[in-house]
């Protein structure tokens, strides 16, 4: 689960990580009041969306007067920001963070993530911060250090390695060690799956500060972090995914043409692969899970039928715990309100397979039947082409 930059900074501040002074603003008037209360001579108006790359897209405005803050806030609030990370549709800006403008001497990259290979928390550090880290990794990998933390805290030796890699010495090396320790604690205590400061800066006055902060919470640990769940901003999430999660469906929206309904995550991935192999792309990942009900299947079909991108639906059910008649029942329920506006290809095998097929046939639905996954994918891709 993602949270906003301002929320991540507030969380880090609780652990003693130095962050710029700033205030949240939901309106132009609030932005002006916030800037006035931060008394200084430079302010930064930052669009709060769950995506990076805001600076290059005009979502981070440096302002030299309250008048400029007002103009930037007016311009940004309600606007749609398209960044490298938002996709073409962009994201609407509903919240602004008004921050003191800092004098930046150097920009670093620093992040923490779970390193599956070492089964440890790893720091990724680079003296080339503030830019696209993927680009740095591709063009000059020697500028990136990845270091897994061996014990329960950052050792002196580990901190020294990171500080030296960033070119920090003396007092700044000490400040860096202190910062790493606090970040490590924040990351582990809050059950993060990713924490990224890009950039971490050295101010003109020689202080280290988190200028940008992205925190991703491990969704599997949210049950013990009500405080993080409370930060969820549903307006940042895909409404279809929210809807699906309410029915216990594992649904992720994608940008292809074939709507998929599958049971089991592995089979769902195999289905997506074979669709690509046959020359099209899936419109979604959808695992209906094992203990699925007619209601949830109905909801899943409604999601697929109401998605304009979907040109054909591929149902691939290998019934074990899931019963084929439940899948058929869900389809019959869904079409009462959401007519089948695109071809549906069904591969139904396993538990109650005959009954499932009979239910669909009795309802005289125009479903194309497939005997195996290969054939199902071929039929679905061909059907999507007819429609397109
Ligand atoms: P994004 O990563 O989405 O582009 P950042 O928060 O990293 O957004 O901001 C982009 C750039 O804007 C930073 O690299 C920095 O140069 C500048 N910037 C951001 N916040 C401040 C600030 N408080 N003071 C001065 N410059 C800032
Ligand atoms: Mg950034």
UniProtKB/TrEMBL annotation:
<dbReference type="GO" id="GO:0000287">
    <property type="term" value="F:magnesium ion binding"/>
</dbReference>
<comment type="subunit">
    <text>Heterotetramer of two alpha and two beta subunits.</text>
</comment>
<dbReference type="InterPro" id="IPR016102">
    <property type="entry name" value="Succinyl-CoA_synth-like"/>
</dbReference>
<dbReference type="InterPro" id="IPR013650">
    <property type="entry name" value="ATP-grasp_succ-CoA_synth-type"/>
</dbReference>
<dbReference type="InterPro" id="IPR017866">
    <property type="entry name" value="Succ-CoA_synthase_bsu_CS"/>
</dbReference>
<keyword id="KW-0547">Nucleotide-binding</keyword>
<dbReference type="GO" id="GO:0005829">
    <property type="term" value="C:cytosol"/>
</dbReference>
<feature type="binding site">
    <location>
        <begin position="53"/>
        <end position="55"/>
    </location>
    <ligand>
        <name>ATP</name>
    </ligand>
</feature>
<dbReference type="GO" id="GO:0005524">
    <property type="term" value="F:ATP binding"/>
</dbReference>
<keyword id="KW-0816">Tricarboxylic acid cycle</keyword>
<feature type="binding site">
    <location>
        <begin position="320"/>
        <end position="322"/>
    </location>
    <ligand>
        <name>substrate</name>
    </ligand>
</feature>
<feature type="domain" description="ATP-grasp">
    <location>
        <begin position="9"/>
        <end position="243"/>
    </location>
</feature>
<dbReference type="InterPro" id="IPR005809">
    <property type="entry name" value="Succ_CoA_ligase-like_bsu"/>
</dbReference>
<dbReference type="GO" id="GO:0006099">
    <property type="term" value="P:tricarboxylic acid cycle"/>
</dbReference>
<dbReference type="GO" id="GO:0006104">
    <property type="term" value="P:succinyl-CoA metabolic process"/>
</dbReference>
<keyword id="KW-0460">Magnesium</keyword>
<comment type="similarity">
    <text>Belongs to the succinate/malate CoA ligase beta subunit family.</text>
</comment>
<dbReference type="GO" id="GO:0004776">
    <property type="term" value="F:succinate-CoA ligase (GDP-forming) activity"/>
</dbReference>
<feature type="binding site">
    <location>
        <position position="198"/>
    </location>
    <ligand>
        <name>Mg(2+)</name>
    </ligand>
</feature>
<feature type="binding site">
    <location>
        <position position="102"/>
    </location>
    <ligand>
        <name>ATP</name>
    </ligand>
</feature>
<feature type="binding site">
    <location>
        <position position="212"/>
    </location>
    <ligand>
        <name>Mg(2+)</name>
    </ligand>
</feature>
<dbReference type="InterPro" id="IPR005811">
    <property type="entry name" value="SUCC_ACL_C"/>
</dbReference>
<feature type="binding site">
    <location>
        <position position="263"/>
    </location>
    <ligand>
        <name>substrate</name>
    </ligand>
</feature>
<keyword id="KW-0067">ATP-binding</keyword>
<feature type="binding site">
    <location>
        <position position="46"/>
    </location>
    <ligand>
        <name>ATP</name>
    </ligand>
</feature>
<dbReference type="Pfam" id="PF08442">
    <property type="entry name" value="ATP-grasp_2"/>
</dbReference>
<dbReference type="InterPro" id="IPR011761">
    <property type="entry name" value="ATP-grasp"/>
</dbReference>
<dbReference type="GO" id="GO:0042709">
    <property type="term" value="C:succinate-CoA ligase complex"/>
</dbReference>
<dbReference type="Pfam" id="PF00549">
    <property type="entry name" value="Ligase_CoA"/>
</dbReference>
<protein>
    <recommendedName>
        <fullName>Succinate--CoA ligase [ADP-forming] subunit beta</fullName>
        <ecNumber>6.2.1.5</ecNumber>
    </recommendedName>
</protein>
<comment type="pathway">
    <text>Carbohydrate metabolism; tricarboxylic acid cycle; succinate from succinyl-CoA (ligase route): step 1/1.</text>
</comment>
<keyword id="KW-0479">Metal-binding</keyword>
<feature type="binding site">
    <location>
        <position position="99"/>
    </location>
    <ligand>
        <name>ATP</name>
    </ligand>
</feature>
<feature type="binding site">
    <location>
        <position position="107"/>
    </location>
    <ligand>
        <name>ATP</name>
    </ligand>
</feature>
<dbReference type="InterPro" id="IPR013815">
    <property type="entry name" value="ATP_grasp_subdomain_1"/>
</dbReference>
<dbReference type="GO" id="GO:0004775">
    <property type="term" value="F:succinate-CoA ligase (ADP-forming) activity"/>
</dbReference>
<comment type="function">
    <text>Succinyl-CoA synthetase functions in the citric acid cycle (TCA), coupling the hydrolysis of succinyl-CoA to the synthesis of either ATP or GTP and thus represents the only step of substrate-level phosphorylation in the TCA. The beta subunit provides nucleotide specificity of the enzyme and binds the substrate succinate, while the binding sites for coenzyme A and phosphate are found in the alpha subunit.</text>
</comment>
<keyword id="KW-0436">Ligase</keyword>
């Amino acid at each position: 689960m993602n949270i906003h930059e301002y929320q991540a900074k507030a969380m880090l501040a609780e652990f003693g990580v130095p962050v710029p002074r700033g205030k949240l603003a939901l309106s132009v008037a609030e932005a002006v009041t916030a800037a006035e209360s931060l008394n200084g001579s430079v302010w930064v108006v930052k669009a709060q969306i769950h995506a990076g790359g805001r600076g290059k897209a005009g979502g981070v405005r440096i302002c030299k007067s309250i008048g400029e803050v007002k103009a930037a806030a007016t311009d940004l609030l309600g606007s749609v920001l398209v960044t490298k990370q938002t996709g073409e549709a962009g994201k609407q800006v509903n919240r602004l963070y008004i921050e003191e403008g800092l004098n930046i001497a150097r920009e670093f990259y620093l992040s923490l993530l779970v390193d599956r290979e070492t089964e440890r928390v790893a720091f990724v550090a680079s003296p080339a911060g503030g830019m696209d880290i993927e680009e740095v990794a591709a063009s000059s990998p020697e500028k990136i250090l990845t270091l897994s933390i061996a014990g329960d805290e950052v050792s002196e030796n580990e901190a020294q390695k990171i500080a030296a890699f960033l070119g920090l010495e003396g007092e700044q090396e000490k400040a860096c060690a202190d910062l790493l320790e606090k970040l490590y604690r924040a990351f582990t205590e809050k059950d993060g799956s990713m924490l990224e400061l890009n950039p971490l800066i050295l101010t003109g006055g020689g202080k280290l500060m988190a200028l940008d902060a992205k925190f991703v919470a491990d969704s599997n640990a949210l049950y013990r972090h009500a405080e993080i769940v409370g930060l969820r901003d549903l307006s940042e999430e895909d409404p279809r995914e929210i809807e699906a999660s309410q029915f216990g469906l594992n649904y992720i929206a994608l940008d292809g043409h074939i709507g998929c309904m599958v049971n089991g995550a592995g089979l769902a991935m195999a289905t997506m692969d074979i669709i690509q192999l046959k020359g099209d792309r899936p419109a979604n990942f959808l695992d209906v899970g094992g203990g699925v009900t007619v209601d949830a299947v109905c909801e899943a079909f409604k999601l697929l039928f109401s998605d304009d991108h979907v040109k054909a639906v591929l149902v691939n059910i290998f019934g074990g715990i899931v019963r084929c008649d439940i899948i058929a029942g869900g389809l019959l329920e869904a079409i009462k309100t959401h007519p089948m506006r695109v071809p549906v290809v069904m591969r139904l095998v396993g538990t109650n397979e005959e009954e499932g097929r009979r239910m669909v046939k009795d309802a005289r639905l125009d479903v194309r039947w497939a005997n195996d996954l290969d054939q199902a994918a071929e039929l679905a891709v061909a059907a999507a082409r007819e429609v397109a």
